[in-house]
Design goal:
This protein is an alpha/beta fold and 407 residues long. It is 38% helix and 16% strand.
Length: 407
C-alpha cells in the first residue's frame, strides 16, 4: 500500500532527523527495517515521561510503520548482517557520527561495490564537507548558528529564543526524504544509485528565506518581532477580550477587508498606513490601533467576522486544541494504529494525500528486537546462523516491551 510499496529501506538512524526521513518513506509504503543498537536501542526509547504502557511516547510517534531489528554493528557478525541486508536494499539511511560508517565497513564507497543501485543517504549536524564536518550537531545548535534564534522571540532586546518544535531535525528529515526520492527517480531512468546527504545546519538555514533575503539585500540582520512578519503587515497575533487570534491582513485586498470586518475603515485613510511600506515603518502604532479594537470583543466574534469577510485568520491553539480541531480530524492527521502490546495507540497521520496509491499508518512502532528473526530469515539466514549470531552478541531476536530492558 502506498506509492513506495516494494521499496526496501535500511534505517540506521536514531532520535529525530533520520527517523523523520524514514517515517515519511514508511508512511508512503516503503518496507523500512529499523536497526537498533545494543543494549538499549534508540535513544527515544528513554525520552520519558511520558510513557504509554511500557513504551516511550516519543519512540511510538517516530517509528510506526517500521519493522525493528537489533544488531550490534561493532561485532563482526553484526557488520556482516548489515552488509548482507545492504546488498539488496534500495535505500540506506544513516546518521552516524563522522567516520563511523566507514570504520565499520558500511560507508557508501564500500557498499556501492556490492550494490551499485543503492541510494545511500547521510544526515549529519553540519554536512560531510566544510570546516565543521567533524562536529556533532543538535537542533538547538543548528537553530542558534543558522540565525533562527536571533530573530525568534518577543522583541529585538530579548534573550535568544529557540523555536519550540525541533525545526531543523524535522526539516532535515523531510529534505533527506525528498533527496532520496529524487535519487530514486534518477535510478529508475539510469539504474544507478548515488550518495545523498543533508544536515541540520542546512535544514535550519533553508527556514530563513525571508530573513536571509533581508540580510543579503540590506546588510542588516533582522531582529525578533514576536509573531509579526518581517516584510508584511498586519500579519501577526492580536489580543482580544478573551484570548489571542492571528490575522493575515497584509496585502491590499485583505487589509481593506480586515478594516471593514472590524469596523475601523478610517485606518485606511491614515497616511501612516496607506501602503505596506508605511505599515511596516509604523508597525508599533499599527499594532496599538488594531489591538485597541480587537480587545473590545471576544476572539470568537472577530474570527467569525474576519472569516466571513474572507480574511485569513485563526485561533492560537494549544496542542490538545490543535489535535482535536475538526479540520485535523477531517484530514486524518490524528489516526489510530494497533501496537503489538499496547493495543490501539493514537498517532499523527500522513501529511501527503494520494488519489491512486494512498499511504497508511499500518503498524505500530516495533518492540525492541521484535522483527530480528523474521527479517534475517527473509534475507537468507538459517536458524542455526541466527542462533550463532545471537550467541556472539551480534543480534537480539527476543522482543522486549519495556524501555531499557533487554530480554
Amino acid at each position: 500500500m502506498g506509492p513506495l510499496a516494494g521499496l526496501k529501506v535500511l534505517d540506521l538512524t536514531h532520535v529525530m532527523a533520520g527517523p523523520t526521513c524514514t517515517l515519511m518513506l514508511a508512511d508512503m509504503g516503503a518496507d523500512v527495517i529499523k536497526v537498533e543498537k545494543k543494549p538499549a536501542g534508540d535513544d527515544t526509547r528513554h525520552m520519558v515521561p511520558p510513557r504509554i504502557g511500557d513504551e516511550a511516547a516519543s519512540f511510538l510517534m517516530m517509528n510506526r510503520n517500521k519493522r525493528g531489528i537489533v544488531v550490534d554493528v561493532k561485532t563482526a557478525g553484526g557488520a556482516r548482517v548489515l552488509r548482507k541486508l545492504a546488498e539488496t536494499a534500495d535505500v540506506l539511511v544513516e546518521n552516524f557520527a563522522p567516520g563511523v560508517a566507514e570504520r565499520l565497513g558500511l560507508g557508501y564507497a564500500e557498499l556501492r561495490q556490492v550494490n551499485p543501485g543503492l541510494i545511500y543517504c547521510s544526515i549529519s549536524g553540519f554536512g560531510r564537507t566544510g570546516p565543521y564536518k567533524n562536529r556533532r550537531g543538535f537542533d538547538l545548535v543548528a537553530q542558534a548558528m543558522s540565525g533562527i534564534m536571533s530573530f525568534t522571540g518577543n522583541g529585538a532586546d530579548g534573550a535568544p529564543v529557540k523555536c519550540g518544535a525541533p525545526l531543523s531535525d524535522i526539516t532535515a528529515g523531510i529534505l533527506a526524504a525528498m533527496g532520496i526520492l529524487a535519487a530514486y527517480t534518477n535510478r529508475l531512468k539510469t539504474g544507478e544509485g548515488q550518495y545523498v546527504e543533508t544536515s541540520l545546519f542546512e535544514a535550519a538555514l533553508v527556514q530563513t528565506y525571508w530573513q536571509s533575503a533581508i540580510a543579503l539585500a540590506t546588510g542588516v540582520a533582522p531582529k525578533a518581532m514576536g509573531s509579526a512578519h518581517p516584510l508584511n503587515a498586519p500579519y501577526q497575533a492580536f489580543e482580544t477580550a478573551d484570548g489571542w487570534i492571528v490575522v493575515g491582513g497584509a496585502n491590499a485586498k485583505n487589509w481593506t477587508r480586515m478594516l471593514e470586518a472590524i469596523g475601523a475603515p478610517q485606518l485606511a485613510e491614515d497616511p501612516r498606513f496607506k501602503d505596506n511600506a508605511g505599515r511596516m515603518a509604523n508597525l508599533d502604532a499599527l499594532v496599538a490601533a488594531l489591538t485597541a479594537r480587537f480587545k473590545t470583543k471576544p476572539a470568537a466574534h472577530w474570527l467569525t467576522a474576519l472569516d466571513e469577510a474572507g480574511v485569513p485568520c485563526g485561533p492560537v491553539n494549544d496542542m490538545l486544541q490543535a489535535l482535536s480541531d475538526p479540520q485535523t480530524r477531517a484530514r486524518e492527521m490524528v489516526t489510530t494504529v494497533e501496537h503489538a502490546t499496547l493495543g490501539a495507540v493514537e498517532t499523527i497521520g500522513l501529511p501527503v494525500k494520494f488519489s491512486r496509491t494512498p499511504g497508511k499508518v499500518r503498524t505500530g512502532a516495533p518492540l525492541y528486537g521484535q522483527h530480528t528473526g523474521e527479517v534475517l530469515r527473509e534475507y537468507g539466514f538459517k536458524d542455526e546462523e541466527i542462533a550463532a549470531l545471537e550467541k556472539e552478541g551480534a543480534v537480539q531476536t527476543a522482543p522486549s516491551a519495556a524501555v531499557g530492558k533487554v530480554a
